[in-house]
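INFO  loader      accepted 1 record
INFO  loader      residues=293
INFO  predictor   begin
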Amino acid sequence: MIFDEPTLHKLRQLTLTSSQVRAGMLKGERRSTKRGASIEFADYRNYSSGDDLRRLDWNVYARLERPFIKLLEEEEDLAVHILLDTSRSMDWGEGEQHKLTYAIRLSAALGVIALSKGDRLTISALNNGKVVRVFNPARGAQQIPRLLNFLENLSGSGYTDLVESLRRYGLESQRPGLAFLISDMLSPTGHLEGLKQMQGQGYELTLLHLLAPDELDPPLAGDLRLVDIETGKAQDVSLDAGLRDLYRQTLQRWQQDIQSECWKRGVKYLQLSTAEPWDKVVLYEMRKVHMVK
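INFO  predictor   done
INFO  writer      dumping tokens
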């Protein structure tokens, strides 16, 4: 089981935040720019012939001797897309620090929040440059068990091509909305063109950049043969203190470059280590950067 009941209860109290106004398709728990038939008052307008007299505010009519119709807020659902990198590079780390396990828990947490608030949720597993498995668009808290079952059966395989995966998703998805990409970003083709494609299709993007502690600071030394987990290519290196310092500096620049690209394009970015408890990330870190409330 991914969550215990107390954690599930905490997640159900949260809401995903969206900075863009969108037109939903079904009633959910989000305020719309349209006026509908909920119980929350929004505004008044003048009465017009044919209006439902049950929406006439008789108290205002008694004071002003003019008929006004009450407008009420309509609540709509938000389309939420979670794109989960399930390539072999995500199959790394031990125990609670295993990257894919950690990413699955983040996906489950975001999915529970979305379903609990009536949002329309889609989760897609990405690898080999395409979408390989999909949790079909679902809505409502009754879908939570099915969501958790879907995520528990994911595994890491294949290679990473984020540009092609995101390009395809942006073109094929039926309804843009709030999109979370959860990945280690170890893609030889990069990622920027894929993000541009998604934004061009109207998605509001959040990037959760996930690395394991031994990727951030490798506990290695001496003469080594390093093997790429996805391609199988090998590289002989002599790892000393100087080379480890160079690695850390290069990694930091790479992370800063990704963060800078995201900020320039209005993409929310959160840099994560699997050493940090995942529930702290959702309940505190995401709140601080207004990803959830």
